[in-house]
Amino acid sequence: MHRRPPSRPARVVASALAVGTLLTCAACSGESKGDGGRADSAADVAASPLAAESTLASPRSGRSAAPRAEKSAGVLTPSGAKAALITEADIEDNWTQVKDAASWGDKLLIGKVDVAALLTAKTNAADCQKLLDALYDDTLLGKPSGASALTGFEQNESRLLYQVAAYDRAKLGTSLNWLKTLPVKCDQFTATDSRGGHRTVQVIEDPVPSVGDARQGLQVTVTGTSGTQPVTLTLQLAVVRVGTDAITVTSGGLRGTETDTTKAAVQQGTANLKDVLAGRTPAAQPGNLD
Q: How many whole angstroms separate alpha carbon 44 and alpha carbon 169?
């Protein structure tokens, strides 16, 4: 698989060691991309890990940010975005941070929506196609308007991609509202790959911890084949808005999701971002206690 340019925003993908290759996350139409493309593997599957209103008290400081501090939150800078990233200690268990997360993705997500087979209104096909493309490209919230950073983690056959970025406020609100409609518009549909293979995609709402200024969560399940073997990719997507910035967590794989890890990434990541915007340095976690 070819690497994506390191400038791509952060994302999460799930590993499928059982299949022996890596899947790739969100852009569609074709087996390669404009940034150089990816070579097809013998198996059609490769794993990768792949979002309400409330305020958040930082679990590190034990105190809530004062209303005045919230209103005067700073602008996210490139160094601030990096400081707001989560670490292995934030999600515990046996997750290992990797250096090549920017190149992750899921080939099961490459496909063209079969409009004729869409269970919901045919006019929703464009939204379902947009979802597949955004998952593959890690652009669920659109292109960042400012600083961004990403990191990724692996554990056994699962992967987690974490992004933090600054966005245009109006576009960010529109993207969150769009995500909320997908469990209805794209509850179940069929996507066809370049070889004529069919994949069944299901989208349901997934709970997100009550943090940040707004949030949305989805679970996306893609069922297809690897060679002659049936495979199912399950991804958890969690997005949290803090002012005009947002974090995006994508996690999962061919053996299901890691709900507790996704929850921890959302909670600690939101706390990190709020600390950075308030001019504080996120406190380091003590590390795994196993």
A: 38
